Amino acid sequence: MSRDLSGKTLGGYRFGEVLARGAQSTVYAANQGESDRPVAVKVFLSELPKDKAAASRLVSDVQKVTATTHKNLVPVIEVGSLEWKGKRHLFIAMERLHGESLKSRLDSQPGHVLPLHVALQLASTVGGALQAIHGAGFVHRGINPGAVFLSPPTDEERQADLEAEDHIYLLDLGAATFFEGLSGNGNGNGHAKRSKYFDDIRGLAALVSELLGGVPSTPVKGSEALLPLHFANRKIPARIDAVLRSVLSDKLSHDKQDQYSSVAEFVAALMGDPGNLPTLAAWSGDGRATMPATRGTSPLLWAALMSVVGGLSFGVGYWLYLDPTPPTPAPAASAASAPSAPVPDLASSDAANSVTSTNSGSGAGTGSVPGKSEVK
Questions:
Q1: pLDDT at 121 > cutoff 50
Q2: Who's near 315: CB < 8 A, 6+ residues apart?
Q3: Per the structure, how many domains does the chain have?
Q4: pTM (2 decimals)?
Q5: Is the N or the C terminus of the chain less surrounded, counting Cβ atoms within 10 Å?
Q6: 364 Cβ neighbours under 8 A, 6+ residues apart
Q7: Quick one: 76 and 106 in the same domain?
Q8: Domain check: are 257 and 202 in the same one?
Q9: How confident is the model over 260-277, as a mean pLDDT?
Q10: Is the confidence at residue 271, as pLDDT, over 70?
Q11: What residues form DSSP beta bridges with 93?
């Protein structure tokens, strides 16, 4: 198939510039029919089966998968086929997004590494979309930085919320179903002991590791070994490294049970609370319902709390500095001549420094105020 359909009108779409090229597909900016609706159309280079019934089943299978909806899945408008030079090719028409891929964002970062809190935010968001896919009974099998898209908030969204963040979308849903259908391996390559969702859990772990500067696997002495992520990024806690390694170092051996039975369990362990599954909107029962947005505590409230804690800390420091034990009374015979117990002079520099040191040592009022992380 020609890799450039720009300027052509096929399948009810007028194709424009190429947005992205891959080894297996090309994505075009296009306009849909008479409505002239702007869309993005992914056209797969592989030809559909010549058997019309087989081709129809394959298109139907991809339609079923892409019908899964979630706020972090790019909306799919249509799945169909178009004919070009006597051959039929599958296409997926999607809402046209503006922004950049996670791969592009990662390449622009110093050292090609994202901050830990941003990587965890992405893991949770992508994980929510995967839960919706798994809840519908399907798998993605294509998790990588190029399959995640970051779309900046609109002007209206920024006016409504000054802290509005990039919207995160998971792309390429349906691609694995198409290629598995072509190869006749529609049931995947799972094993009786391994969940069919393991590929997505492993893919998400590999994505997080890459965002943090790790390499999924490294050949060592003729065998696959996974080097500790700490060697590449010393800011990564050992706990997170252990969770990632527990998935990535498995090497897909068939005699092992899954470390995590669901992507929700994996993300919960990654966040440090394996006893509680995530409760954000992305993790609702069906992956679709929207729960009330959880905002960070008001800055004014945090300031008030820090002031109260700071005042309490000063009081405790002052109490510790002034020994509350009353002095032992002097014998009556020498009471008149005994010197009085020394009283610390709080105006002196030594005493003031001692009190200040005690207060600052408590750490109250000096911590950073938790805020909303933003993908940058």
A1: yes
A2: none
A3: 2
A4: 0.70
A5: C
A6: 306, 309, 310, 312, 313
A7: no
A8: yes
A9: 82
A10: yes
A11: 41, 78
Handedness of CA 108, 110, 112, 118 (dihedral sign): negative
User: What tokens were used for 366?
Assistant: 């000096």
Residue at 342 is within a domain: no
User: Is it the case that residue 330 has pLDDT exceeding 60?
Assistant: no
| Res 160 pLDDT > 60 | yes
Identity of residue 85:
K
Residues 68 and 153 in one domain: no
Helix 238-248 to helix 198-211 angle (10° resolution) is 140
Q: Same structural domain for residues 82 and 127?
A: no
Do both 214 and 294 map to the same domain? yes
- What is the number of other CB atoms lying within 10 angstroms of the CB of residue 270? 24
Do 77 and 105 fall into the same domain?
no
User: 178: closest CA among 130, 124, 140?
Assistant: 140
The mean pLDDT value for 83-109 works out to 94
pLDDT tens per residue, range 307-316: 544 554 444 4
Q: What is the mean pLDDT of residues 264-274?
A: 85
For all residues of the chain together, what is the average pLDDT? Answer: 76
Asked whether residue 263 is assigned to any structural domain, the reply reads yes
Lowest-pLDDT range, 165-174, 237-246, 365-374?
365-374
Domain boundary residue, one of 269, 286, 316? 316
| For residue 365, pLDDT beyond 60 | no
